[in-house]
Amino acid sequence: MKRIEDIEMMEVEDLLKVAEDNSVSVPEGLENRIAASLLAEKISQEEDAPAVSLRARWITGFAVAAACTVAAVFLYNPARSELKDTFDDPRLAYAEVERTFERISSKMSKASEMAYEATNEIGKPASVIRKINRK
Amino acid sequence: MKRIAFLAALLLVTIGSFAQDGKSIYQKYSDAENVSAVYISPAMFRLIGKLPEITADTEDGKVDLTPVISTLTGMYVIDSHNQSINSALASEVKKFITSGKYELLMEAKDNGQTMRMYTLGDEKIVNSFVMLALENDETTFICIDGKMNRKDLEKVLAEQMK
Question: Which chain A positions have a beta carbon within 8 Å of B41's beta carbon?
Fold first, then answer.
């Protein structure tokens, strides 16, 4: 029996001679087995095909959903639309800016006062210790 | 699977880029009941910059606000006395602060009242200043955007404190 390597080394003419040689017997049922194998291969390919397609559908669906979300955010995000100025007069606007800075400063001032009071409280024990030491 | 993960990450980044900012918070709450709101646009700041004299009165005289005002690009103020939205407003501001990588400048708590100030920028420039004050029945949100020189801003605020 010839090995595949040997067959591959054979010339085409030799292969044709072997093919035409009627003395070589074909195993019984070989034709059916080949047909069955081909059919099985075909079925296998058909089963694999939808799996790839399903993944592609997922990716496409996800991409479409992502595109829709981004588009929705772009179109409906209120922050993207223009706001209207509260004041038409720059002097009034300036007065409001000034007032806002004053409010911020007032809050900062309050925080500073609290910090100052806390510092005084922290200093009390030290002052008591100093008085005790003097005695 | 990698593609899906990549697309999901891309989507999250995209959505993240539309996260809260001063403008969106202003837009969301400015029309609510018992809320007073002020918005000053970059164009208005340019007009203010053309005013002949920009100073603020203090006890010791006047403070020149020009160095700060001329660098501002937007100001949003929300003053809410609406109890039903105060907590939501505070929560959104906190999210905005966290996502915007703001730095806490100052925090003061007194009798259940909290005031926090945040800045965004570096040692020299302040790109955004936010103040959130939570008082008994009032929540105040102030957001000032611009390219403010930190020293100028501190000077203006300090001089007005006098």
Answer: 83, 85
ipTM of the complex: 0.81
- Three-state DSSP class for residue B104: strand
Place of tokens 């001063």: B22
- Selected for mutation to probe chain B from A101, A106, A109, A114 (highest B CB count within 10 Å) is A101
Distance (Å, whole) CA B119 – CA B130 = 6
Residue-wise DSSP of B22-83: HHHHHHHHTTSTTEEEEEE-HHHHHHHHTSS--EEEETTEEEE-HHHHTTEEEEEEEEE--H
pLDDT tens string, chain B, 162 residues long: the values are 566 555 555 555 555 555 578 899 999 999 999 999 999 999 999 888 888 766 655 555 666 777 788 889 999 999 999 999 999 999 999 999 999 889 999 898 888 889 999 999 998 999 999 999 999 899 999 999 999 999 888 888 877 666
Domains of chain B: which residue ranges? Answer: 41-161
Whether residue B125 contacts residue B149, with contact meaning beta carbons closer than 8 Å, is answered with yes
CB B132 within 8 A of CB B119: no
A108 contacts in B (CB within 8 Å)? 106, 117, 157, 161
Q: Which of A7, A84, A45, A87 is nearest to B47 (CA)?
A: A87
- SS3 for A98? helix
Please tell me which residue of chain B has the smallest CA distance to A96. Answer: B38
